[in-house]
Amino acid sequence: MSKSNKASLGSTKPLVVPLYQSSVYTLPDLDALDAIMNDGEPGYIYARDAHPNARRLGALLAQIESAQWGVVTGSGMAAISAILLATVQQGQRILASNRLYGRTVQLFTEELGRFGVATEYVDCNDLSAVETSLQNNPRLLFVETMSNPLVRVVDIAALANLAHEHDALLVVDNTFATPVLTRPMDLGADFVMESLTKMIAGHSDVTLGVVAGNDADMLPTINRTSSIWGLASNPFDCWLTERGLGTLELRTRAACKNAEQLANWLAEQSGVSRVWYPSREDHPDHELAKRVLDGGFGHMLCFELSGGRDAVNRFIHAAPGIPFSPSLGHVTTTLSHPATTSHRYASPAEKKRQGISDGLIRLSVGVEPFEQIQEEMAKGLT
Q1: Residues with Cβ < 8 Å from 155, sequence gap 6 or more?
Q2: In the β-sheet with 209-213, what is the strand arrangement from edge to edge?
Q3: CA distances, 13 to each of 17, 53, 56, 60, 279 (Å)
């Protein structure tokens, strides 16, 4: 290409970070390849191993998570998988909260079981039970800051102390809380992971996850695991997620305010038998939530309709402005039905133990004017 045809920015630079869509990069010679692969020189070769948008996003996320490094993966489940594949060996054990997202439970129980890794579940709100279970020498303890779906809150600092006393790693899924409300790394966690698909990206147009940590020796291991097992991200989703980061705190604070108002309003409505939201004094972890969460109680809440599944269907039909969308973190309010979505494959006994009834609705509260959400919700409750 002639010099006159080359694009030049001159003394200017783009305000928005470029999207590096290329899946492969060119190199000047073999020495340059060796310098990147052997000596850690800056540069890129193949996007499954690394690309500029993922590197930049990982660094930004590490900063807001109070971590030394962050590795972006293709989904939240890929982030969990990367941690497990990098830290757990055949014959070892995992200790996990008995209140987890359904697919996480499937990963631990069904998939890891095939590779000779056993999982024990414990009530992580019962610290004495956790300490007893840690005597079985698990490799790691896995918890959610706020459980899916009933937003139970755990004492991360206490769990970190217990785990470390028994030489176990603490891994925290912080997806419901986000680093806006709590930073598990500051409370002693060894790894924090997020499903970036949800509140952090915030617009339901990406599928990504992140693993963040402080142990420098684990960074190359997580990177290698992500590449070998094909857990990597794509550039466009990383670019979109970085865009979402710019409004994360604004969106989270606004959604938390709406959720708190909505929880209190729902508790007064006929046909609603119970509301789960940590700001309410009737929530079992209300006092703990005030210590663990900073400046808000989350954008997620649950409420139960006394009419069961039929009442949920009536609500969905009557309130089309609250879409039935089995995910969370969008800028507008959506609902999900845990019994048939996130915990669809849990046994009836397990659903009953967790309080996941056919009438339970999980709300991901958005940033619309509260009156707009309230008006649409009222349609479903009449």
Answers
A1: 125, 127, 288, 291, 292
A2: 69-73, 209-213, 191-195, 169-173, 140-144, 93-97, 118-122
A3: 9, 17, 17, 20, 45
Please state, rounded to an integer, the average pLDDT across all residues of the chain: 96
Instruction: In whole angstroms, give the CA distance from residue 133 to residue 77.
Output: 25
What pLDDT was estimated at residue 73? Answer: 98
| Cβ neighbours of 303 (radius 10 Å) | 25
Burial 193-222 (b: 16+ CB within 10 A, else e): bbbbbbbbbbebebbbbbbbbbeeebbeeb
| HEC letters along 261-326 | HHHHHHCCCCCEEEEECCCCCCCCCHHHHHHHCCCCCCCEEEEEECCHHHHHHHHHHHCCCCCECC
Which residues, listed in sequence order, are joined to residue 212 by a DSSP beta bridge? 70, 192
Place of tokens 């990406």: 206
Write the DSSP symbol of residue 19: P
Whether the predicted model's global pTM rises above the 0.85 cut: yes
| Mean local confidence (pLDDT), 61-66 | 98
For residue 84, the one-letter residue type is: L
∠ Cα 137 128 298 (to 5°): 100
Domains for the chain: give ranges and CATH numbers: 30-245 (3.40.640.10), 248-381 (3.90.1150.10)
Q: Tokens 């999900």 sit at which residue?
A: 336
Single-letter residue type at 273: S
Catalytic site positions: 48, 101, 173, 198
pLDDT tens string 311-324: 999 999 999 999 99
Residue 5 is predicted with a pLDDT of 53
Phi-psi category of residue 246: left, alpha or beta, with phi > 0 → left and psi -120 to 50 → alpha: alpha
**Residue 11 confidence (pLDDT) above 90:** yes
Nearest to 259 by CA among 335, 196, 318, 161: 335
Q: Are 326 and 342 in contact (CB under 8 A)?
A: yes
